[in-house]
Amino acid sequence: MEPMKYLEELMERYPVLERVKPQIREAYEILAACYESGGKLLIAGNGGSCADAEHIVGELMKGFVKRRAVSADFAKRLMEADPERGKELAEKLQGGLPAIALTGHPGLSTAYLNDVDGEMIYAQQTYGYGRKGDVFLGISTSGNSKNIMYALTAAKAIGMKTIGLTGKDGGLLKRAADVAIVVPETETFKIQELHLPVYHALCLMLEERFF
């Protein structure tokens, strides 16, 4: 299936998202270019959006709807490294698109919260992990989460591309991100309900492109 077929299917299933179709496509193109050049995706969010960040990593770092078998060359190298374990690894490892949720590092996060400034935890991680050519995805239903905006600022300074996934009027995130997908809802839970099919479609498009 051609990657854009997933975007068309999304529009059929969720007609309300038609107004953000160009932004979803642009976000896909930014992510595809990042992965083509060997980059990675950093994702941050709070509350339900924190869970969404982890969810996205789960779809990108292993098979989503495809098995993503390792290449014959890598399977051979695994066997050379260890004939017994290599055989099993060659059968079970799956291709991944590098993605890190900045939400699951409690040792670092609590240290930075205690020693420096809790609102800049995501910015610190972005500064540490981020490289020019990587992508930062900030998820905020209001578009005004301070910790997301600090991280986005750090990402821009590094030379990363930035994507916002938000709702309502898009807030600060809409104005600052390279592309902002502002789903047409105003209540938090309804915004989150539309975020899931958007990022699922992006993950499906990327999997189709690279696997």
Question: What distinguishing features does this structure have?
Answer:
5 strands; Rossmann fold; globular; 211 residues
Provide an overview of this structure.
- The structure is a single chain.
- This protein has 211 residues and is an alpha/beta fold.
- It folds into 2 domains: 3-61 and 96-210, Rossmann fold (3-Layer(aba) Sandwich), CATH 3.40.50; 65-95.
- It is 57% helix and 11% strand.
- The chain has helices at 3-13, 21-36, 48-60, 72-81, 83-92, 106-115, 121-129, 146-158, 171-176, 188-210, and strands at 41-45, 99-101, 135-139, 161-166, 179-182.
- Helix 1 runs antiparallel to helix 10 (188-210) and helix 3 runs parallel beside helix 10.
- The protein is globular.
- The mean pLDDT is 97.
CATH class wording of the largest domain: Alpha Beta
For the secondary structure, the number of strands is: 5
Q: How large, in whole angstroms, is the Cα Rg? A: 18 Å
Q: What's the arrangement of strands in the largest beta sheet?
A: 2-1-3-4-5
The CATH architecture classification of the largest domain is 3-Layer(aba) Sandwich
- Main beta sheet: strand number and arrangement? 5 strands, parallel
Average residue-wise pLDDT? 97
What's the helix count?
A: 10
Give me the CATH superfamily of the largest domain: Glucose-6-phosphate isomerase like protein, domain 1
Order of helices and strands: HHEHHHEHHEHEHEH
Query: Which structural class do the helices and strands define?
Result: alpha/beta
**Per DSSP, what share of the residues sits in E-state strands of 2 or more residues?**
5-15%
